[in-house]
Every structure is written in structure tokens, then in C-alpha cells.
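Please, structure for the following, as C-alpha cells.
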Amino acid sequence: MKLLRPVLLAMVFVGAFYFFTTYRSGQFHPANWFGRASNKVEITEAAVSEPFDSEEQNNISVYRKNIDSVVNITSRAVTFDFFYGLVPQEGQGSGFIIDKVGHVLTNYHVIADARTVKVTMHNGKEYSATVVGSDRAHDLAVIQIKGSEFAPMVLGDSRNLQVGQKVYAIGNPFGLSGTMTRGIISSIRPVQEPDGMRIDEAIQTDAAINPGNSGGPLLNTHGEVIGINTMIASNVGQSAGIGFAIPVNTAKAVLNDLTTVGRVRRPALGVQTIPISPELAEQMGLPADSGLLIVQVVPGGAADRAGLHGGTERAYLGNLPIMLGGDLIVAIDGQEVQDQQDLSQVMNSHRAGDTVRLTIFRGKKKMDVNVMLGEARQQV
């Protein structure tokens, strides 16, 4: 018994030493007495990937259908710096292929004053491009890359677009190629671009459009081009939910001119007109309370050749001298015309050489007159 006490006392000291040096320091794990504890993290995984819903499937379809036809455009121009002389300046934008021989539609401001233009496809292949034609008034340009069997995009119809309609924008915002955003048509309205040019019936959208998207396509849910993205309304230089696109029908009206003669043969009626209000119509004794009254016909112009009449009786509209007695235009191709803006919209969908049907009043007599549009050498 006396021999057992020192042994028990020694075991107590050893146990106390082990407790304070191992267990209290965090290295003591009771589980280790029976085997090493597992360090595996338990997570919850989906059994099977859920299928895409119909909306997601359409998003993917629109993207895959068109991404190979959307290109990145890099233009290099030369500007003059007071201290350094001529300085190269590089800009970026987007565009899309419109035919199998490599014509690419984009914005005029993307390639304006460019000395060299480079096109990069979605697969990374690069081409040198030449400027085929440009139209500053509509902010449109056509460039061409050399090759064969390019995949063109399908050009849709921008008539009868509705606010609330879903749209997609594909382009290269901030140089990030192959980007698609989605939104709706927020409004159809006339807007003025920073350089002063006016876009009639511009498509306003909340689809995110940023620098680098310019010239890229705006698509409907069928993947058809309904507009060309051109500008944003923002105080910070990037998307604030208000972007604008040029209606594709405006582009289609000038594509033939841009690709064949390099410029737009802008159509003109060859008339000077004033808009008629109900008050003016009553004062002048006109048979309709709206329309455009022809005060002068340009000699040799389209209207003159078609036999339209200008005014013959001198009068004053306030302090403005005008000529009364001319034909009153009330419609073109069945579309009502009330002011110069209506006339401009009609002209934007035509080119020189097209024939339009004018509905006019000559005196009290209503008649239709076919007019072959001339080319606008100057704004008349």
C-alpha cells in the first residue's frame, strides 16, 4: 500500500501536466481516441440541372442566331494637338453584317474621319475594312471586309413598333465583345444627336447601351434587326436606362445608295410649304383644316414636273410675305401630312427616283398626283 501511493501520486501529476499542456492549448480532441475526425464540408447539390424556361430559351436562341454576324469596329483617325502636332486617335464601336459579300452597317460617327478601320469577328478573326458609303444626316455608314460566305443578319420592319415590346441589344460595350442586353421599347420619339442631327421616330429603349454599342443591332424577339443603336442619354457617359436606336427602315431606304454610289441621293419634292392650322384654313378659305400649302414650286423640280401649282396671290403671314392660291398637300401615299416633320418622315423612307402619290386640294377639288422624287441638292 505504501508503494502504491507514490505510483498513484505520480500518475496524478502526469495527468495534470497533460491536461494543462495539451487539452487547454486546443490540441486535445476526444474524437481522436476513437479515430481521426472527418474534415469534409457538407454541401447541398442539385440532383439534376433544371431545364431553361421558354423566355431563357428564346434569349439564348436570339444570341446564338446573331452573334457571329455582330462585329467589333476599331477606327484610327489623326487629330492635331497644339503641342505635339498630329496625334493618332482610336475609337471603338459595333456593326453587323448585312450580306454575304461582307458589307457591314454601322454608325457614321463610329468611322467618321477614320484613316484605317479594322473589324474583329466574334471568333477573333480580324479584317481590314474600307468605307463604302456614309450618311452623316442619318448617322449611318457602310464598310466592307473582303471574304466570302459571311453570315448576314435578317433586317426586320420598324413600322408599327409598340411601347413595351421586348428588344435585345448586341455589341461591344467598353470593348467587351459579344455582349447582349435585354429590355423593352420605352418610347418612339424624335431626338437630336450631339452633333445636331435629328432622328425621326427614334426607338427609345431601356436595354443597357454603353460606349462601344454604337452601330450594333437592336433586335426583336425573332432575332430580326429593328434598329441601329446610336446614342445614350446620360450625364455620366454610360447607360442610365435611356438609349436610342435608328429605325431599320430608315437604313433600308438608303442602303442601296450607300453601297452603289457611296452617298445618299436624298429625295426632294422641290416645293416650299407652310403648315396649315384650322385657324389659317378658315382665314384662307381652304377646304381642309390641316396640310401643307405650297407657296412656291422650284422650277424644274419634282413637283414642277408633276404639274403641282405654287401660290399666285401675295399675302402676309404676320410679317412674313407668302403666296396664296397653291395646291394643298394633305397626304402622301395615304399617310396624312400636317407639317414639315411629317413630310421629312415620309422622305426618310424614300430615295431620289421613287414615285409617291400626293393627295392634294386644288381649289375645292380633291385629286391624287403621282410625283417622281428628285434629288435634294440643297434643303428645299
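The longest strand covers residues 179-192. The mean pLDDT is 85.
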